[in-house]
Amino acid sequence: MDAYKKAGVDINAGYKLVDEIKQLSHNDALGSFGGLFPLTLGHYQKPVLVSGTDGVGTKLLVAINAGLHETIGIDLVAMCVNDVLAQGAKPLFFLDYLGIGHLDQTQAKAILTGVVTGTTQAGVKLIGGETAEMPDMYQHGHYDLAGFTVGIADQDRLLAAKNLRTGDVLLGLASNGLHSNGFSLVRDILFKQHHYSLDDQLSGCEGDLKHELLRPTRIYVKSVLPLIEQGLIQSIAHITGGGLIENVGRILPDHLSAEFDSTKWPVPAIMKDLQEIGNLSFDDLKHTFNLGLGMVLAVHPTDVDQVTAELKKAGETVYQAGRLVPGSKKVVIREDSL
């Protein structure tokens, strides 16, 4: 074991980290060869398991350079559970993977504390994971994160394009800034082209860049799932890479298009600043960022008032951002406000 430690891998540090995460997650089964989750089918008539996996992308480099690792795990959970939610499924459990060059106990605990926070926000159980210490694979202080989640739904109640109709309203749920998308462009504009510091503050933003860029992705499970279970949501787009254009386009049937009116919601200041500093076109903006909407729900007009009221009660900020019209799977955003 001493020889392995000299080669750059500290097994005892890994064991200690597992014990700390057991305490944080209140799951004594962590550390087994496989994660266990007792499956109670309950009211499900034709149960379907829905899975999702994702990472955080180059937002990790911002966290590493800022030395702030406490919220990046929330992003990891969010990117996975929001995708499963968009299928109409209830996320059940989560596993994480942390690949790291050298296991720094404080850094790793901060990262995985964020994962535990995310699973709590999503109402899912952290049942396992992997921490791989790989000297020479990553530069000192650098790491990578990946996550995996499984949810459940009734096959007949999965959200699908067939549920959508002309006139359905598109409700946008406010994002928490950039979430976890477009960071290769963000970093290129701010740090490579214009040499900003993470301690700098842009004109429209409340805090410095490190805190603005590391705002964690919102997790929408607890506010949206009850509405899915009531049959009030017809389809969902989780707005990730590709922005509104690509992600809303994924949920449309062949005979419908989506029209958004950008005057109906505020675009976050950070995105307007990036547009100005980077000399971005509106086309660049809408194909890269969420424009302030982290999730879009398609709702029949008769259900809009009830859905909006329940979402607001659950703490969401909701905008009637657009509607479905006859067309051929196009997504159009009026840019009057930008």
TrEMBL record:
This is Phosphoribosylformylglycinamidine cyclo-ligase. Pathway: Purine metabolism; IMP biosynthesis via de novo pathway; 5-amino-1-(5-phospho-D-ribosyl)imidazole from N(2)-formyl-N(1)-(5-phospho-D-ribosyl)glycinamide: step 2/2. Its EC number is 6.3.3.1. The gene is purM. Keywords: ATP-binding, Cytoplasm, Ligase, Nucleotide-binding, Purine biosynthesis. Residues 48-153 form the PurM-like N-terminal domain. It is found in: Cytoplasm. The keyword Phosphoprotein does not apply. It is an enzyme of class 6 (ligase). Signal peptide: none annotated. Belongs to the AIR synthase family. It catalyses: 2-formamido-N(1)-(5-O-phospho-beta-D-ribosyl)acetamidine + ATP = 5-amino-1-(5-phospho-beta-D-ribosyl)imidazole + ADP + phosphate + H(+). It holds the Pfam family AIRS. InterPro entries: PurM-like_C_dom (IPR010918), PurM-like_C_sf (IPR036676), PurM-like_N (IPR016188), PurM-like_N_sf (IPR036921), PurM_cligase (IPR004733). One of its GO terms (molecular function) is phosphoribosylformylglycinamidine cyclo-ligase activity.
